[in-house]
Amino acid sequence: QVRLVESGGGLVQAGGSLRLSCAASGLTFSSHDMGWFRQAPKKDREFVAAVTWSGPNTNYSDSVKGRFTISRDNTKNTVYLQMNSLKPEDTAVYYCAASRYRDYLAMARRGVAYDYWGRGTQVTVSS
């Protein structure tokens, strides 16, 4: 059974930082590109960032580029999202997901590219 478990969310003031983690089990972690998405209240889910299986290639949404960094540790089956300079508009539930692709980020921004999803972790940024 595949499990993706996010952690690290919480309440932070604007300008602060958080580091999200997503621990994966039940799959061959290094066979999957990984992504982070988020969904704010009353809004559609949106792509945040993605990383290829080995880590050197990444993709970010314009709204987080330069502030967020995605990384992974295949020895720990974990993907991370370092979030700096947080803004109130970053408030959302953040989800990690495992892509059906390996080393192919052309589809990274589309939710249909992902086979497995975590349950999410809440991030709240106060102004």
Profile the largest sheet.
7 strands, mixed
Helix content class: under 10%
Q: What is the tally of beta strands?
A: 11
Report the total helices.
0
- Summed over residues and divided by their number, the pLDDT gives a mean of 96
Write down the secondary-structure element order: EEEEEEEEEEE
Q: Which overall shape is indicated by the principal axes computed on the Cα atoms?
A: globular
Beta-strand residue fraction: over 45%
Radius of gyration: 13 Å
Keywords:
127 residues, mainly beta, 7-stranded mixed beta sheet, 4-stranded antiparallel beta sheet, globular
Architecture overview:
This protein has no helices and eleven strands. It has 127 residues and is mainly beta. The strands form two sheets. Strands 2, 4, 5, 6, 9, 10 and 11 form a seven-stranded mixed beta sheet that branches. A four-stranded antiparallel beta sheet has the order 1-3-8-7, with no helix packed on it. Strand 5 and strand 6 (58-60) form a beta hairpin.
Briefly say what this structure is:
The protein is 0% helix and 49% strand.
Write the layout of secondary structure elements.
Blueprint: E1 3-7, E2 10-13, E3 18-25, E4 34-39, E5 46-51, E6 58-60, E7 68-73, E8 78-83, E9 92-99, E10 114-117, E11 121-126
Parallel strand pairs: 2-11
Antiparallel strand pairs: 1-3, 3-8, 4-5, 4-9, 5-6, 7-8, 9-10, 9-11
